[in-house]
Amino acid sequence: ALQSHYRMVRAFKKDPVGATIRALLYITLPTILLYLLNRKNPWYHELPWWRKDGFWNIPIPWGEHDAEGNPKQFIPLPIPFLLGYLFKSFPERVMAAIDQDDPHAWDEFGINLWKMVTPNYIPAMLLPFIENWANLSTFTDRPIVPERELYVEPWMQYGPYTSETSKLLGRAFNLSPRRIDNFIYSYTAGLGRLGVEGVDKALEWVGLADKTPKAAEGAKGIPILGEFIAEPGYGGTATIDRFYKDYYETQRLYNTVKAMYERKMPAPDLNERQLWLLSVWEEMKGLESELRKLRALVREVHIDTELTPEEKAKVIDRIQLQMLNYTRQAYGKAPIPE
């Protein structure tokens, strides 16, 4: 990373005009054209910012579409490191802030930029160990093991997309299959995932794997290529991610104000945003409860033994869209048609 920063600085120092023109031509211009292509596609805007900051997301014409013909799946192409962040991420966030009137267009931009320009003092070899210890993926900024599974035996910490290989190892050594998967994929990336899928097939063939039919993954199930397909719903959507950030912020704020009142402390001086969050706390709790019920329903569909993989995929997609639309409507956004 430091070497790439040094090369970029040297190139701009040697020929600032030429380097800027090349960056605008080869990075910013494709970004603008791609944004215009995706401008009216709500699924593109539901991609989380970490995905849009790090990749050009190209819609797949032969992938899944919604009722209005909008592509739901994208092939992410990595952008140049710091140069891409300045000449791709920055102009795209400007366009989103103006065109979409997105008040969260600049969320975490400064933090991500700081992470990019400062050296990472954690050796890459140690990162998977640290992630598993902290229960946090540094790539997605999400827990490796969700909270609902933290209070069961480690071997029970798996989901519908956890590999059969890791579940078998987890049962044998009472380890978390989710953490095993994270450990394997952190070191081996797509190649390791492909190898694990091969072992899973072998385990199914000898009868050592769970025989519950898994939901069909469509284009994401294509060997090798499927690993590179981005799709809102697989890894979260921007609106639902925003809701949970607001929800936990409001929960902390509410509990703090309540504790201060119970201890007879002076009322805190709240800003306009904090007052607004407290005013919608009851609505937030209702939406969170509804989303929790729908997620439980998704888990029930995953473990159902009667539905075919294709039927499971349809039911799960419908539930996930319902979750997304509930949240979009709560934020004043138009629902996405089925």
Shape: globular
Helical segment count: 13
Q: Structural class, please? A: mainly alpha
The mean pLDDT is: 86
Order of helices and strands: HHHHEEHHHHHHHHH
Radius of gyration: 22 Å
Strand order of the largest sheet: 1-2
Quick tags:
globular, two-stranded antiparallel sheet, 3% strand, 338 residues, mainly alpha
Short description, anyone?
It is built from 13 helices and two strands; from the N terminus they run ααααββααααααααα. The relative contact order is 0.09. It has 338 residues and is an all-alpha fold.
List the helices and strands and how they pair.
Elements: H1 2-14, H2 16-38, H3 42-45, H4 49-54, E1 55-59, E2 74-78, H5 81-99, H6 109-117, H7 127-134, H8 164-173, H9 177-206, H10 238-262, H11 272-279, H12 281-303, H13 309-330
Antiparallel strand pairs: 1-2
